[in-house]
Amino acid sequence: MATIKISKNNLYHNLNKLALKSGSKNKIAAVLKDNAYGHGIELIAKLTSDWGIEQAVVVSNEEATKVSHLFKNTLVLNDTPINNPKLSYAITEIKALKNAPKGAKLELKVDTGMHRNGILINELKEALNIIKANDLNLYGVFTHYRSADEFSSEFAWQKANFEEVKTIVKQSSIDEVRFHSHNSASLLRCKSFSEDLARVGIAMYGYNELPTPLEQIELKPILSLWAKRSSTRELKKGQRVGYGGDFVTKKDMIISTYDIGYGDGLFRGNSQNPLIIKDGLPILGRVSMDFISIESTKEEICIFDNAKEVAKHFNTISYEITTNLKSRIKREVQ
Ligand SMILES: *Cc1c(COP(=O)(O)O)cnc(C)c1O
Fold first, then answer.
1. Which end of the chain is more exposed for a tag (fewer CB within 10 A), N or C?
2. What predicted TM-score, i.e. pTM, was given to this entire model?
3. The domain over range 8-200 is classified in CATH as 3.20.20.10
4. What is the pLDDT of residues 289-308, one digit of tens each?
């Protein structure tokens, strides 16, 4: 069976770097949405909470149920608010605010320029009035940057907009609201961090997506993907391997089948430009649903231990490579 191995040492190395950057481990919210970017939500929640992380971010109530007992608060990004002291809910439009139940902890998401989710700055006063009139529980106010990982002035104007948001909220008579705007990229590039919380996903998993002129902190990928040998055969020169027979042997070869495929979330890609696995060997022919062929007889092979390299091969980002890995793959801590 294919296995995902999670390096506890590398995770703790990354958390340490991030805590130094934010000033405190209490200011880091572990972003665990989408099965912890494919790493395994329960496992990562346990490891991060053991290390001392007190805040989490998930996408749904279903995910919250799996992890919220381990944290002081879990922010749910996209689900219906319920009244639970361990959970807070992102509210991204006025309509949702009007429907929110009394008592539920709400975190107002403000659109400072990404134009994906969030109430507009010119709706903020209306939102604060609804909160007061309906006696709602405002726990936080936050935003999300659209270009924190790009070397441009984009980030600066969005940050200025969020400062304006803070001023408006502080002028209202609602107090004890937490403010947060940073994701991994913006925390890594910021010179002095002063907000209440940073929502950190990809950096915790070991990837720095910042371009080189911006600060480079050494992070270590925590996930490696492994597959086991299921069978081995000797092929003569000129024989073909897999669907369509795309790979033709140029010599006699000993080839094994390993138990991972696109059904596990490994990208199928193009057999004319195969992925080179960690051992330096190419995948031979097409990736099947549950199998690949490799010129090896090892009992277990490492497919990759750095999703960023794989992402480059498939012309995507590290996030997609790991998030694509299915929950059926066994996860273990190293
Ligand atoms: C996913 C997400 C994050 C984490 O982003 P990274 O780039 O992985 O650090 C932070 N905030 C929100 C609102 C998100 O949706």
1. C
2. 0.95
3. yes
4. 999 999 999 999 999 999 99
